[in-house]
Structure to design on (731 residues):
């Protein structure tokens, strides 16, 4: 008799542990099984083999139930994933929530099955088959000819030949019919493989990493330095030694071009995982990996959990990108989990960016990561000239518009030369706030304490926090006046204004409003790449690694937008955004130019950005983080308490705070600081928000973290508590 610990696939804190089951036949750990549970039969995962553990006295009295059946022909959870799940548990993630992360969601509950289709092949050698058919049976001979070099799905064959011909050949034993999984292939562009001669910097990077062996590398390469070629070469190298590879990119970078480049280089070895896939496609791609039919997983953050064994290399491109941090259940840091996978298989973990996060760069400086720098563009072109325009001077000269004179002149020249332009503004909508000029009334969301943004094309006022939509006001609900003041300009108004100045230009927009469907951004990017539009206006979506050949001008409006957020990362984010957006210009023959509009031209962030001086920026930023004791020199825990009942939220938050304050009194060195307050945005989705901010020293003491998580709970009804580490937003 074998005995296993099984976790059932049900969401309840009390069930988030293993239950013992027995079996006559052995199973592998990680197998998905069905088991009796109370009166139900439920799905679960084998998380431990306890067969050789002695039974305790109590266990001896228990009549363990038997596992009903295995649900897949192979274990779906790799052993190393159980380790990652154990690690995430120390960060307050339930085991079952981690396990769900590791498999395609629709595998659970048997919602997606492999799509089996009849597959027809020659049962005997081609020459013999031909001899067995009368020379007058032309139709049958054609079928044999068609299958000479390999089989085909019956559904496709019947489009070309008659069903009866196929049946006859099957009955004669000349063809065989079997079931084969039909693969649903995600779409990609056909791109011809292009081989490059590596630059000295690329060659050096490749050599350091291939010779360096297992470990973590930071590839800091300016925009256009040719990091992708380095990645692909490293993947080649892994495959050549019989290993597998994972390549992560921000979601929006998974364009058909990118997929096309990988397909042309690696063919069927690539499996693609991104949110635009249907459940069927996702399952198929995952199945190809777990069966060893594909050796490369290419995808956004969750592709880190691709079921690949024997990993040779894991690449995280644009490692600074916020999308690598999961801030909803299950919460995790992709790089942290990648380091676990790296250690497990002694793989090479390569973090790449033109603007590494200061945390990552510090680790490289301290020698925890091997630092490799690429300072030049691969095609030997210089980085685009970045010019700062002082908008205060423009205003003094009477220009109260959105665009400075130098920017308008430059756009005009670019359009004249049939070149493309990108205009960046990190604010959605038409205007950010609608206010009555007479009484000062501001339109706010009914469910959140924030002002609404006007979206002109939809005639709507939208809440950017909960998604609520309201009709645009005709008159002020308070005083009845109908004269409204505009707030700050958003991307929608930029398009309108640009169109007014350049009536013949074709202008497209890319932001969360124009990209409502999952893969709509692919279409917008595709159209822009084909030069179907001249100007692309957009939010930070523009800042990702797009490689457009004929963009020669990038305009950055309101560069100050994120500079003064109450967030320790605002300078870093602003620097990254500007550098990345600027990097989209002048990537091919023609030189690029960037024009950045700001009200703070002397701010150090812009001074360094202007010169593409990452190192200068880094030194200044890391010093101030050290002095002010912000991450990476500390770890911030944010405990967020929310409830529809304000009173309940206050009482629960106060309760948690009191426990932590007493802990701090007893352990004065546990926290650097502890504070509780109403959140910056005091209500979202009709839930009142209170937060407790703990700044803890690093390295984090495990018992301190454990204490924080165990106190961040409440029994009060209707109150929710969540805990984040170094949250992206502190509001
Ligand atoms: P990054 O990711 O560093 O911003 P990319 O990998 O997108 O840069 O490369 C930028 C451009 O340079 C691409 O069009 C790429 O094809 C080209 N490129 C890369 N390596 C070379 C090389 N060795 N010689 C010529 N062109 C190259
Ligand atoms: Zn709202």
């Amino acid at each position: 008799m074998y005995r296993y610990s099984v976790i059932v696939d049900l969401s309840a804190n009390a069930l988030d542990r293993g239950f013992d089951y027995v079996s006559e036949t052995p199973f592998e750990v990680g197998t998905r099984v069905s088991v009796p549970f109370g009166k139900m039969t439920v799905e679960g995962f084998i998380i431990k083999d306890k067969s050789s553990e002695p039974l305790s006295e109590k266990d001896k009295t228990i009549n363990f139930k038997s596992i009903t059946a295995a649900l897949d022909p192979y274990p779906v959870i790799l052993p190393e994933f159980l380790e990652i799940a154990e690690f995430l548990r120390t960060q307050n993630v339930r085991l079952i929530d981690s396990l769900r992360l590791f498999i395609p969601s629709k595998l659970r509950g048997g919602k997606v099955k492999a799509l089996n289709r009849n597959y027809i092949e020659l049962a005997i050698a081609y020459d013999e088959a031909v001899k067995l058919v009368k020379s007058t049976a032309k139709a049958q001979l054609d079928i044999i000819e068609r299958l000479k070099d390999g089989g085909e799905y019956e559904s496709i064959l019947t489009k070309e030949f008659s069903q009866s011909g196929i049946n006859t050949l099957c009955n004669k034993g000349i063809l065989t019919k079997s079931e084969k999984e039909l693969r649903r292939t995600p779409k990609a562009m056909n791109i011809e493989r292009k081989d490059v001669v590596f630059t000295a910097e690329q060659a050096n990077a490749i050599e350091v990493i291939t010779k360096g062996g297992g470990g973590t590398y930071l590839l800091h390469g300016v925009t256009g330095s040719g990091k992708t070629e380095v990645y692909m070469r490293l993947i080649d190298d892994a495959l050549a030694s019989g290993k597998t590879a994972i390549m992560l990119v921000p979601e929006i970078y998974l364009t058909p071009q990118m997929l096309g480049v990988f397909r042309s280089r690696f063919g069927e070895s690539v499996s693609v995982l991104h949110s635009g896939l249907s459940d069927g496609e996702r399952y198929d791609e995952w199945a190809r990996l777990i069966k060893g039919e594909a050796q490369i997983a290419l995808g956004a953050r969750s592709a880190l959990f691709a079921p690949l064994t024997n990993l040779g290399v894991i690449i995280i491109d644009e490692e600074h990108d916020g999308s690598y941090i999961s801030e909803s259940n299950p919460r995790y840091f992709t790089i942290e989990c990648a380091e676990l996978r790296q250690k497990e298989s002694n793989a090479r973990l390569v973090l790449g960016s033109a603007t590494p996060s200061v945390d990552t760069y510090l680790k490289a400086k301290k020698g925890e990561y091997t630092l490799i720098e690429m300072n030049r563009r691969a095609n030997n072109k210089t980085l685009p000239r970045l010019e700062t325009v002082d908008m205060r001077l423009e205003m003094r000269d009477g220009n109260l518009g959105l665009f400075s004179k130098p920017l308008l002149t430059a756009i005009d020249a670019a359009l004249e030369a049939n070149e493309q332009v990108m205009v960046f503004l990190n604010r959605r909508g038409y205007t950010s706030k609608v206010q009555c000029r007479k009484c000062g009334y501001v339109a706010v969301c009914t469910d959140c304490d924030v002002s609404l943004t006007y979206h002109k094309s939809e005639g709507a006022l939208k809440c950017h926090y909960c998604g609520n939509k309201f009709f645009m006001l005709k008159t002020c609900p308070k005083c009845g006046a109908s004269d409204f003041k505009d707030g700050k300009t958003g991307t929608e108004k930029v398009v309108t204004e640009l169109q007014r100045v350049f009536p013949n230009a074709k202008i497209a927009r890319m932001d969360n409003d124009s990209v409502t469907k999952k893969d709509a951004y692919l279409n917008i990017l595709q159209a822009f790449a084909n030069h179907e539009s001249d100007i692309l206006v957009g939010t930070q979506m523009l800042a990702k690694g797009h490689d457009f050949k004929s963009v020669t001008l990038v305009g950055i409006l309101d560069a100050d937008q994120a500079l003064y957020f109450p967030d320790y990362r605002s300078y870093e984010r602003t620097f990254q955004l500007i550098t990345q957006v600027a990097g989209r210009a002048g990537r091919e023959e023609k030189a690029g130019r960037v024009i950045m509009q700001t009200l703070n031209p002397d701010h150090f962030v812009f001074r360094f950005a202007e010169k593409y001086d990452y190192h200068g920026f880094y030194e200044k930023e890391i010093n101030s983080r050290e002095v002010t004791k912000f991450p990476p020199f500390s770890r911030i825990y944010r405990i967020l308490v929310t409830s529809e009942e304000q009173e309940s939220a206050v009482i629960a938050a106060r309760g948690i705070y009191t426990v932590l304050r007493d802990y701090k009194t007893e352990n004065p060195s546990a926290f650097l600081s502890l504070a509780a307050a109403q959140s910056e945005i005091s209500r979202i989705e009709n839930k009142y928000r209170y937060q407790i901010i703990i700044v803890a020293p690093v390295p984090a003491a495990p018992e301190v973290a454990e204490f924080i998580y165990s106190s961040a709970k409440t029994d009060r009804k209707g109150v929710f508590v969540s805990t984040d580490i170094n949250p992206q937003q502190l509001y």
About this structure: The chain has five domains: 2-110, 116-181, 200-374, 385-430+489-625, 634-725.
